[in-house]
Specification:
GO terms for molecular function: ATP binding; helicase activity; hydrolase activity. It holds the Pfam family DUF5906. Residues 353-507 form the SF3 helicase domain. InterPro entries: DNA_primase/NTPase_C (IPR004968), Helicase_put_C_phage/plasmid (IPR006500), Helicase_SF3_DNA-vir (IPR014015), NrS-1_pol-like_helicase (IPR045455), ORF904-like_C (IPR051620), P-loop_NTPase (IPR027417). The chain has 627 residues and is of the alpha+beta class. It has 5 domains: 13-146, no CATH class; 164-215, no CATH class; 231-295, no CATH class; 338-548, Rossmann fold; 554-622, Arc Repressor Mutant, subunit A. Helices cover 33% and strands 19% of the residues. The chain contains 17 helices and 29 strands. A hairpin with a 2-residue loop joins strand 13 and strand 14. Helix 3 runs antiparallel to helix 4 (204-216) and helix 14 crosses helix 15. The longest helix is centred in the C-terminal third of the chain and has 20 residues, at 512-531. Residues 1-7 have low confidence and may be disordered.
Length: 627
């Protein structure tokens, strides 16, 4: 394929390793000749639809709405312009396996941090209508059949007795309500799904389903207005005006360019539209839970000022629709703030490996999926070490997206409900307590479903997205020694000391520029985590501090650290007595004899029977299989 002499589009090519970018999207070329594998960097006006498998439905869509088609090993990409209509109620962003109005699932690629592969192994991929690659302004708009649906079911290949009727009914009705489709459009859509999406056409049955949808479809709504005597109608009007959503038991409404959850602020906003009695306020809040848009999907991007969105680590400009996460930090790829830089260097005490992980902790906060299952403890027994200053900086950086559930409240399902809709949980100066239970600690760290209970409401399941950060003068002790806790804890030593106090440091670390630099560092930290396969960068400083913590917090390990050379050949009961005495001297909590024996075995010591003075006794011997 040769490049046309008449170009209306300057293409930016990014070098790939297979299908993965070799570097950041800031590094590109206008010529792919020297690239073995290459992709075109997209923009916010382009939408590339990736059909991961070939199907009759996909072929018909291309034939009906011809555009640039790039063949892949399993399917093909169709290139379109983003629709200019305001009807798109489900925002078009980078999705994987997203259902379309046409009933097929696709991947969407869009934005300046996305690319579409056009070259592999030194060869351009096969293309149709290839002239459009160099004239992107002439691409057609994304057709209705490829608009995103808010449903998740899969229609492709459905046969008789596989629920086609109910699936088609649900799909047509939802599409009609989502995009205000008229009768003619619904008839065309029903015919397309029946003939090209289903494995076996339903024929007349499909038309019967369509008729049911048309009968169900509401007639033109009567005009609604605010009326203090009609709370139902008033709630419906306010729901639309304030764009109210109901997510995980919380009401969110749009204020300026963001969604916030605060019942008091919501009532104050309502008071600007209609003045009501307190009894009406309570009634409205209850009605909103029914009238508001119910949000069941938990996968949200992080919204930034200026129309920017952090979507899977990439910053793009799109309309993200509803998201509970609005981070009030200006995006600037080149941002730098000397005060923040100097402070982080102070906190890390000049250790680059520690500074790297601190930045990745900030990146962890931005990651709502695919994050390392880690909990961060900023530990420092002395005063003026920067812990509290760091916490204040992060709180101001995340603003309304932080909460502060203490560690000893993690098994209280009402307390952990406050994690919903937050990006970080920050508890400052936690007590050096002994934690008997740790199941919720592990579950919250991994983002797995956990039961929460809003006050005066029924319990519900949520998946935690908040990064867990704690500061302490003494580390807490966990009863769980199975390794599940150990794998999750990251101990960050705060062992520097302020020599000259700056009374304005908190203000300096929370300026607009400071937040922009923190955002830049967080994005770079998140990118490193993804580059490490979802893991934090190895830090010798942190590994050593974390190991010291577990030795000191595990009385058996601590005992072995001090008496390992005196154990071989000694009676098990004598060693246990030594251990109990050691714990009493050190102020540690001793385990029972059975648990101590299990810990000894895990450490490589085997209990063996031996005859001493004519009596059978049990002694400890080094397990040779461990060597």
């Amino acid at each position: 394929m040769g490049q046309s002499n008449k170009k209306s589009s300057i293409l930016k090519y990014i070098e790939l390793d297979g299908k993965v970018p070799k570097h950041s999207f800031d590094i590109f070329s206008t010529d792919h000749t020297n690239y073995k594998d290459a992709g075109v960097i997209l923009n916010t006006k382009l939408v590339v639809v990736d059909f991961d498998e070939r199907s009759k439905a996909a072929d018909v869509i291309f034939d009906t709405y011809p555009t640039l088609k790039v063949h892949t090993s399993r399917g093909f990409h169709l290139w379109y312009k983003r629709p200019t209509t305001e009807q798109i109620s489900t925002p078009i962003r980078n999705y994987t396996g997203k259902l379309t109005v046409g009933g097929v699932k696709v991947d969407y690629k869009t934005g300046t941090k996305s690319q579409a592969t056009i070259k592999q192994n030194g060869q351009l991929r096969k293309m149709e209508n290839d002239h459009l690659l160099y004239d992107l302004d002439s691409l057609p708009e994304l057709p209705l059949l490829l608009w995103p649906s808010k449903l998740k079911h899969d229609l492709l290949g459905l046969k008789e007795h596989q629920g086609r009727n109910s699936a088609l009914y649900s799909h047509l009705l939802t599409s009609a309500e989502q995009y205000a489709l008229d009768k003619e459009t619904l008839e065309t859509l029903a015919g397309f799904i029946d003939h090209y999406v289903f494995a076996d056409p339903m024929g007349d049955e499909a038309m019967t389903v369509l008729q049911s949808v048309l009968e169900k479809k509401p007639v033109k709504k009567k005009e609604k207005y605010l009326d203090a005597k009609d709370m139902v109608m008033t709630s419906e009007v306010l729901t639309e005006r304030l764009d109210i959503h109901y997510y995980s038991g919380r009401l969110f409404f749009k204020q300026k360019d963001r969604y916030i959850t605060d019942d008091n602020k919501l009532l104050r906003e309502i008071d600007q539209h209609i003045q009501l009695k307190p009894s009406n306020h309570k009634q409205l809040l209850d009605l909103f839970k029914i009238k508001a848009s119910l949000v069941e999907d938990g996968d949200f991007p992080v919204m930034l000022p200026g129309g920017y969105v952090i979507d899977e680590g990439e910053v793009i400009q799109i309309d993200a629709g509803f998201t509970p996460y609005f981070l009030d930090a200006r995006y600037d790829e080149q941002a730098y703030d000397k005060d923040v830089d100097d402070f982080l260097n102070f906190l890390a005490k000049g250790r680059k490996d520690l500074r790297t992980v601190i930045e990745e902790m900030l990146g962890h906060i931005l990651m709502t999926k695919g994050f390392p299952h880690k909990v961060f403890f900023l530990y420092g027994p002395s005063a003026y070490n920067g812990k509290s200053t760091f916490i204040k900086m992060v709180k101001r950086f995340t603003d309304s997206l932080h909460t502060g559930v203490p560690l000893d409240k993690f098994d209280d399902d009402t307390s952990i409900y406050s994690l919903v809709g937050k990006l970080v949980n920050i508890a400052d100066d936690i007590n050096a307590s002994y934690l008997d239970k740790s199941s919720n600690f592990k579950t919250l760290a991994s983002g797995d479903p956990v039961m929460v209970r809003p006050i005066y409401s029924a319990a519900t399941m949520v998946e935690n997205r908040a990064t867990l950060v704690f500061t302490c003068n003494e580390m807490p002790m966990f009863r769980d020694k199975s390794g599940g806790v150990a794998r999750r804890i990251v101990v960050i030593p705060c062992d520097n000391k302020v020599t000259k106090k700056d009374i304005h440091i908190d203000e300096k670390l929370s300026t607009v520029n400071a937040k922009s630099y923190l955002l830049r560092l967080a994005l770079e930290g998140a990118a490193r985590i993804r580059g490490n396969g979802g893991h934090l960068t190895e830090s010798e400083t942190i590994n050593q501090q974390t190991e010291e913590y577990f030795i000191s917090s595990d009385s058996a390990l601590s005992f072995l650290q001090n008496y390992d050379a005196e154990i071989e050949g000694k009676k098990t009961r004598d060693i246990y007595a030594m251990y109990v005495a050691y714990c009493e001297d050190e102020g540690l909590k001793a385990s029972g004899s059975t648990e101590f024996g299990r810990r000894m075995k895990k450490a490589g010591w085997e209990s063996k029977q031996k005859k001493i003075d004519g009596k059978n006794v049990r002694i400890y011997a080094r397990d040779q299989s461990e060597e």
